[in-house]
Amino acid sequence: MSAMQNVQGWWATRRSLFLTAIAIVAIVIIAALTLGRRGNATALGAGAEGAGGAGAGASGGAPAMPPMPVDVDTARVRSVVDAVRATGRIEAVQAVELRSDEQGRVTALMFREGEFVAKGAALLRVDAAMLRAQAERADADRDLARQQLDRVRRLREQNAAAPADLERAEANARSAAAALAVLQLQIARSTVRAPFAGVVGQRFVSVGDYVTPASRLLTLQTVDPQRAVIEVPERHAVALRSGQTVEFTVAAEPGRAFRARVDFIDPVVQPTNRTIMVKGLAPNPDRILRPGMFIEARLATATRANAIVVPEDAVQPLRTANIVWVVDKGKASRRVVQLGARSQGVVEVASGINAGELVVVGGLERMGEGMPLAAQSRAPQAGASQGRTSQPAADSGNLKAR
User: Fold this and answer.
1) CA–CA dist 228, 232 (Å, integer)
2) CB burial class (10 A; 0-12, 13-18, 19+) of residue 10?
3) Main-chain phi, psi angles of 166, to 5 degrees
4) Phi, psi of 40 (to 5 degrees)
5) Which region, left, alpha or beta, applies to residue 298 given φ > 0 means left and ψ of -120 to 50 means alpha?
6) Among positive and negative, which fits the CA dihedral 348, 353, 357, 359?
7) How far apart are CA 194 and CA 239, in angstroms?
8) Hey, how many other C-beta atoms are within 10 angstroms of the C-beta on 213?
9) Which residues touch 42 (CB under 8 Å, ≥6 apart)?
10) Sheet holding 198-203, edge to edge
């Protein structure tokens, strides 16, 4: 029992010593802080007296801020083309899946897949031996009917034949000639020909296959021009016109822009996605554009002359407004601007900036109203834009359209 009391006494003594040490450390820290404040106050007082003794001209003055060097560009006037961004596909102007008018066994294929063929070129032949035999018999029947008709006519001239006999002979002659013409037409149709000039696509039959009018034989598509088909949101319906320009790119040629001229605007809005189908003819002399290709397009809807544009990196987007910093008499001036369309690294400024003003294009996060600036010019840089875009006109003096 005495051992337990000794342990408890030892712990009580240690706790008292620990609390005493903490109190001493706290007192020392408070004293040090108090002395430090008094020393700072004394030093400040001495500094103020020294500044006063140096003369009134130095009292309260601060060194002037040196001008901050910044890159600037000029707000320029350009002719800007409004464009609606859309996606779509390439379609052949004419495309057909050929079938045989006659049934029979395929005896010859006169084409290769992927080959360009002229209009009227023979592509496939179906066995017509039976038709030729029937045509020979019909030819003989026609000759016999003609001979009988000549005989009845001579008899009729001699009043040796009744008028009904002549009429019957004439009808037989016409019927025999028509039967021969039908067989000759069937023989001609046993050879499948290209209805227009184009490229042969996939074939579905081989020599020896038995085909009917329901059998698929091959596909044929035109290649030049091709048709660009895009889906435009219905809100742009009033801006759509025939003759407008569609500029588009394809994955096969990512750095190349193709153009099509609108020749069809669907009068009906698609109920599933609320879009309007627009088609345009695109020249394709190199045969790069192929049916089914995905395209990213811009449809030019309007042109605005004398639009003011600035580089995109001159615009500082904030939560409630867009800001552009202008160099005004060597100092920074903050302008709230209304932006228009974007294109290739520049953005149209509808209000807030005048043509010819210098705009800051770098270090916008360090800018402040009235800050002195040392402006240095920066060469214009081209870029790309997304979303609803504008496209400067491609004539001389304007930004080149991609």
Assistant:
1) 13
2) exposed
3) -65, -45
4) -65, -40
5) beta
6) negative
7) 40
8) 9
9) none
10) 95-99, 216-221, 198-203, 116-117
Pairing type for strands 68-74 and 373-377 reads parallel
Q: In this structure, are residues 345 and 312 in contact, taking their beta carbons and an 8 Å threshold?
A: yes
Q: Which of 255, 265, 226 is nearest to 84 (CA)?
A: 265
Which residues are registered as beta bridge partners of 264?
Answer: 279
- Among 255, 279, 275, smallest CA distance to 265 is for 279
With beta carbons less than 8 A apart as the criterion, state whether 138 and 179 touch: yes
How many CB atoms are located within 10 Å of the residue 289 CB? 25
Amino acid (1-letter code) at residue 299? L
Q: How far apart are CA 124 and CA 189, in angstroms?
A: 10
Q: How far is CA 325 from the centre of its chain?
A: 33
Tell me, what amino acid is at 371? Answer: M
The whole-model pTM stands at 0.56
15 is written with which tokens?
A: 């706790």
Report the C-alpha gap between 7 and 15 in whole angstroms. Answer: 13
First to last CA, the chain: 99
Full pLDDT tens readout for the chain, 402 residues: 455 555 556 556 666 666 777 777 777 677 666 655 554 444 434 443 443 443 444 444 556 678 888 888 888 888 777 778 888 999 999 999 999 888 889 998 988 888 999 999 999 999 888 888 888 898 898 889 898 888 888 887 888 778 888 888 889 989 999 999 998 898 888 889 999 999 999 899 999 989 999 999 999 999 889 999 999 888 888 888 888 888 899 988 888 899 999 999 999 998 888 999 999 999 999 888 999 999 999 888 777 778 888 888 888 888 888 888 888 888 888 888 888 877 778 888 888 888 888 888 877 777 788 888 877 776 555 443 333 444 433 333 333 333
240 DSSP 8-state letter = -
Joined together, the tokens standing for residue 32 give 């040090």
Quick one: which H or E segment has residue 156? helix 129-157
DSSP bridge pairs for 87? 296
State the Cα–Cα distance between residues 250 and 75, nearest whole angstrom.
33
Contacts of 158 (CB under 8 A, 6+ apart): none
The single residue listed with the structure tokens 């039959």 is: 205
The C-alpha atoms of residue 266 and residue 278 are separated, in whole angstroms, by 6
